[in-house]
């Protein structure tokens, strides 16, 4: 019993790394790590989930882009054509509509493309960096 106890009556015997003992209670907490990866070729778990819902997600993104562009265009059309709508507040709203329309056209498709294949933009960034270095 000489080597089994330290100050404070704590045992020195080694416990497995997955078992943690609380010194104030006699409770034992066990931590287990499991990997339930069904698609081993996918580096990201969410990419596999996105691939299963791809036929649903793409039309939804297309609908969002079309409604966003059409709605913002209608707002800009009304503000530009109606003389009564020419005031500072409506010009501000028109600027917001125009920037939202640009976001729908430029950012949303890239967000969708990145969601399904995140490595494309990494390779593109490397290619652009090398092209800039050559100039």
Automatic annotation (TrEMBL):
Entry membrane topology: Multi-pass membrane protein
Annotated compartments: Membrane
UniProt-annotated stretches for the region Disordered: 1-22
GO CC terms in record: neuron projection; plasma membrane
Pfam family name, one: 7tm_1
Annotated G-protein coupled receptors family 1 profile domain residues: 71-135
Amino acid composition bias (Basic and acidic residues), ranges on this chain: 1-10
Protein name per UniProt: G-protein coupled receptors family 1 profile domain-containing protein
């Amino acid at each position: 019993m000489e080597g089994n106890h330290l100050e404070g009556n704590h045992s020195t015997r080694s416990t497995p790394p997955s078992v943690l003992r609380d010194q104030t209670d006699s409770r034992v907490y066990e931590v287990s790590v499991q990997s339930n990866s069904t698609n081993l070729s996918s580096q990201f778990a969410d990419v596999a989930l996105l691939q299963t819902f791809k036929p649903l997600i793409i039309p939804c993104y297309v609908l969002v882009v079309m409604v966003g562009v059409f709605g913002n265009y209608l707002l800009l059309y009304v503000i530009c054509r109606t003389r009564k709508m020419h005031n500072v507040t409506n010009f501000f709203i028109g600027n917001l509509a125009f920037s939202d329309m640009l976001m729908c056209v430029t950012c949303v498709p890239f967000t969708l493309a990145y969601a399904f294949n995140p490595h494309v933009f990494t390779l593109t960034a490397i290619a652009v960096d090398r092209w800039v270095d050559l100039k």
